[in-house]
Structure formats: structure tokens, C-alpha cells
Amino acid sequence: MTRRDNETDGRTGTLERTETGQQTGRPRLYRVLLLNDDYTPMDFVVRVLTRYFRKSGAEAELIMLAVHHKGQGVAGVYTRDVAETKVAQVTAHARREGHPLMAVAEPEPGE
Asked: The pTM is what?
């Protein structure tokens, strides 16, 4: 419900409340992808996946292999703000360690 400012009911001086008819739905989801490069070590990618995406060792290795063989792997699916934060964290960590690992966020298909 929203307030319409400066409107009174003419008797008590109170503001009216009206419904806007807007429905809130689920927020759009974004995939965080790790992209393959020829320089970032595989064990570093596994460490990133376990640290920033809370993946188990086995799951992190499967994602790392997808990155290596297919060129990219889905690290996780999040709301936009969380996805952008994860991309920034991974990128900053990779640069601090001297690796060119790239992470990107893209809208989930069908969202």
C-alpha cells in the first residue's frame, strides 16, 4: 500500500491509503560463471569455488573441469547483488594472487 501525500479525507485531516495493485515477485536470478584461461592453475580454481561459493571439494573439482573442458562453469546462482559481489571478490582475489581468472554474472535463462 502506498501513501498519497497532501490528501485528506476532509474531516479528520488524516492521509488516505490506497493500494497500488503492484505485486512483488521473486527477484531475477544471475549465474556466476568462471571462464577458462590458459594460465590460472586448476587448484586455484578449486580453492576459489570452495572459499567463495561454499562448494565441496568434489563439486569444486567437477565445476573446475567444466571450466577447463567447456570454457566456462557455473559457480552458483544468486540474486543480482550477491552475484556481483561474488564476481568482485573472485576477481580481486585472483588479481592479488597474480592469476587472470575471470568471473562474470549473467541473467538466468528463462528468468
From this structure: 0.77
